[in-house]
Amino acid sequence: MGNSALLVMDVQRDVVEIADGGSGYLRRVRSAIDGARAAGLPVIYVVIGFRPGRPDVSPHHKVLSAAVRDGLFTEGDPGTAIHPDVAPQDGDVVITKRRASAFSGSDLDLVLRVRGIDHLVLAGIATSGVVLYTLCQANDLDFGLTVLADACLDTDPEVHRTLTDRLFPRWADVLTVEDWRTALTPN
């Protein structure tokens, strides 16, 4: 798996409230985080956030314009914080992005390159948003990739299944959190 890092993306209070209907999602993400820590892998959190007044959101961007109209994702607002059930520990890096991909409008690539990370393990909300966009860009940047299917979540379960069953396997290893944790454990 190369020099790997776990990316926990957009698991923010407001996003979890919108997307998770009590599926046990946070428990699975917590298990992935615990597995990464036990294996000595860095856990890097990625959040979406916009400046107050939203000077970084174009009215031409349908999805982001709708989100900011609904009052979502202003930096410093409690709903924009990482969900406390999966909160970072001291020493974890938190990246703020300005668009769907974890790389867009952020210094993620710099943080990864400085640490010599060449393999990314992806978890996050939404499968059709941050996970898809980050996977595409990371693939183009020649990172090795693993997607933790059950540590990704989408408001549309069919879209989630289509992406994790049919599209993502073209570019990444797609595993459950349990199977990934088992692969991390030396025999």
UniProtKB/TrEMBL annotation:
InterPro entries: Isochorismatase-like_dom, Isochorismatase-like_hydrls, Isochorismatase-like_sf. Keywords: Hydrolase. The keyword Hydrolase applies. GO terms for molecular function: hydrolase activity. The keyword Hydrolase applies. It comes from the Bacteria. Residues 4-179 form the Isochorismatase-like domain. This is Cysteine hydrolase. It comes from Streptomyces lunalinharesii. The lineage of its organism: Bacteria, Bacillati, Actinomycetota, Actinomycetes, Kitasatosporales.
